[in-house]
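Appendix B. One record, verbatim.
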Amino acid sequence: MHTSVRHSQGRLLGALLVSGALLLAGCGVRLDGPPPEVPSPEPGEILRQEAALETAEILALAEAAGAEAQASGATGDAPGDLAHIASDATTHLTDLGGVWTAPPRPSATDGADSGDEATEPAPTPSGPVTGEDVLDALEGSTAADSAADPDADADLATLLASIAINRALWAAELRADLGLPGGPDGSADPATADLDIPDPLPASAAPVVRTLDALGYTQEVIAARGDSSERGEAAAAALTLRDMAEDVAVAAGIDGTDADPRVAAYSIDTADLQGARETLIAELLPGWLAQVPDAETAVRAPLIALATQAAFLGQDPDLRIATYPGLG
């Protein structure tokens, strides 16, 4: 009897193991099969990964070009600016979450790497890299397009928009360092570009309405106090700024409402009109950029263009370009 009991327990254990294997197979888990496939990334993750790869490439190029410049004893601002570009790219890459690389995946037969291709970070350039190579990468950046992509959520869109502005500013700085004229493809100075106000805008655009209107008022004071050679240009600028404030108010749906922040006169430092003007200009970049999260995706691109223009207007040539323009 004693032997019979042991035999029954052994049969019971075997039955349980077989049943467990059947249950695992029924649930889609195979003990002897290949590992499950890596899930396909969401569209937003694809955008993030592409942005990270582009950033890794800019970082590698800037570091290599900076090393080449130092080794050759290059003078001027280029070596320092290349180091700043690399530093900013390092921060951008970290805040984007880095480049995702698929982990090694065992094969179904011998546990070796399955051979599935994994995304690798941008390789270190093999040949000499110049400042022109970095310039090409900066001017060819797709960060602004990715920020305007409907698949970018509000946070990613804002981050990429600021990164795009940083790269545009550095591209202009590096172009000047290298003694190259104009912008890419002979484009005009972004600070003087003729840009339209997008429509619709979120009601949170009210601070931009006030800033533009206050700038118009400041220009009117400058025109009134300036000599004849300054008066016409200042008056024309005042009219343009007032019209822009009106267009933004209409697009945001606050024109003539209690939410309309415009007043007849603004408190400005009349003893330092140029300083008052610069202070207001500095408010435009964060003001435009703040609209990106709330705005419809269709108007993100023109908002980023307006923010970029404001960045060029407000950039102090004696100060280092911000890692995240408009985001503090």
